[in-house]
Amino acid sequence: MDIPRWKKWLSYFIEIPIEKVSSDLNPYLNVSLREGKFQLTTEKAIYSYDEAYDNFRHSFEKIHLPSDHVDILILGLGLGSIPIILEKIFKKEYRFIGVDIDAAIIELFSKYTLPRLKSAVEVVTTDAFHFMMQNTRKYPLICMDVFRSDVIPEAFTSIEFLTALKDALTPDGVLLFNCLALTKEDIKITREFFKGPFIKVFPSAGYFKVLGNWVLLNDSSKGIEVEIST
Question: What CATH number did the domain enclosing 163 receive?
Answer without folding.
Answer: 3.40.50.150
